[in-house]
Amino acid sequence: MSDTTAPNPPPLTGTGPFSGNGRPDGPPAGQLQFLVRTAHHSPNGTLLGFWLYLMSDCLVFACLFAAYGVLGRRYADGPTGAEVFELPLVALNTSLLLLSSITYGFAMLEMQKRRPRALLGWLAVTGLLGAAFIGVELHEFAGLIHDGAGPWRSAFLSSFFALVGTHGLHVTCGIIWIITMMTQVGKYGLNAANRRRLVCLSMFWHFLDVVWIGVFTFVYLMGVLP
Question: What is the pTM of this model?
Answer without folding.
Answer: 0.80
